[in-house]
Design a protein that fits this description.
The chain has a domain at about 30-95. It is about 45% helix and about 10% strand. The protein has helices spanning about 15-25, 30-40, 70-80, 85-90, and strands spanning about 45-50, 55-60. With about 100 residues, the protein is mainly alpha-helical.
């Protein structure tokens, strides 16, 4: 079986594992799928903000995630920012079934 972006590469991060499963399974574009998969593998998390909108946030922990806030900013700016509209659309699927994302 070929590797796929459709599975959460970090099931050890249980707090948002279900959200990542839903997100990655909803992505149809391989480039975007692998980009999100890579961000998650490196330690990105999904948090649901007070307004109910899910957003990507870094896990800053050299053992479990990004080595520093600077490392996250570099990754975000280089790889995620060019796809910000596509990522926002992909994250929006997490709120389509009732207005709020939940794990």
């Amino acid at each position: 079986m070929a590797p796929s972006w459709r599975s959460d590469p970090r099931p050890d991060l249980v707090a948002d594992h279900a959200l990542w499963q839903r997100l990655l399974q909803s992505v149809d574009d391989a480039e975007l799928g692998w980009l999100l998969h890579g961000a998650r593998a490196a330690g990105a998390t999904i948090v649901v903000c007070e307004d109910g909108v899910p957003r990507l946030k870094p896990l800053i922990d050299p053992a479990l995630g990004y080595a520093s806030a600077e490392a996250w900013r570099e990754f975000r700016d280089r790889y995620l920012r060019p796809y910000s509209a596509e990522i926002a659309r992909a994250l929006s699927v997490l709120t389509q079934d009732g207005g709020k994302a939940s794990a």
